[in-house]
Structures are given as structure tokens and as C-alpha cells.
Specification:
Structural class: alpha+beta
Number of helices: 5
Oligomer: single chain
Largest sheet: 3 strands, antiparallel
Number of strands: 3
Helix content: 40-55%
Order of helices and strands: HEEHHEHH
Length: 113
């Protein structure tokens, strides 16, 4: 595959770093191009699920972050894996609050201006 084709493909479907909450309360971090499919694999497919997630089903997606390239996604995944649990929870909660704020701004909530 040529580098031009590969670069075009990466722009079309960027990599995503994701965190899932496992049934035992732990957090698992990974990367994928199709996060919904990957979470489904963690929950149902013994051959494709990560060993860690397979033993802690069901898992629920709680965070995702786009990355431009696979390399960038791997670097961010490593950064997140080095975080403490508290830092990861803050990351997840911060994303939820950011999304809620953006939705409220779109709805014209006067308290957020």
C-alpha cells in the first residue's frame, strides 16, 4: 500500500483512544478505529477480546478521544495507562461535563454564558 493511500485512509477513519469500565470496577484503555465494534468484541468475542477485558465482562464505554494517526493514539494510550485511577476518573468526568456544557450552549442555556 502506498504512503498516499495509507495517509488518505487514516484521515477518513482516525484512530480513537478509549476507556471502558469493566464489571469489576476497573478501567481498561485501548485504541481502535471502530470503537463500537471493539467494545462489542470485548463483550462477546473470545478470540478478539483483550484478555483483560474478557475476564471482566461486561464492559461499558466511558471515554473516547480521537487521534490523527495510529502512532499518536499509541502515545496517548500510554500516557493514559500511566495515570492513576483518580486521574483517569477525572479525565472521564471532565469529558462528560464538557459534552454537557456544549449541549447546554447549543440549547441556549443562559446560565452557561
Amino acid at each position: 500500500m502506498s504512503s498516499t493511500t495509507k495517509a488518505k485512509r487514516d484521515r477518513i477513519s482516525p484512530w480513537t483512544v478509549y476507556i471502558v469500565h469493566c464489571a469489576d470496577g476497573s478501567l481498561y484503555t485501548g485504541i481502535a478505529k471502530d470503537v463500537a465494534r471493539r467494545v462489542e468484541e470485548h463483550n462477546s468475542n473470545n478470540l478478539l477480546a483483550a484478555n483483560y477485558a474478557r475476564a471482566r465482562r461486561p464492559v461499558v464505554l466511558v471515554y473516547k478521544e480521537l487521534a490523527a494517526t495510529r502512532s499518536a493514539a499509541l502515545k496517548r494510550e500510554h500516557q493514559i495507562k500511566q495515570m492513576s485511577r483518580r486521574e483517569k476518573e477525572t479525565l472521564v468526568l471532565g469529558r462528560i461535563e464538557d459534552i454537557r456544557d456544549r449541549l447546554n450552549r447549543k440549547r441556549g442555556d443562559p446560565y452557561l454564558r
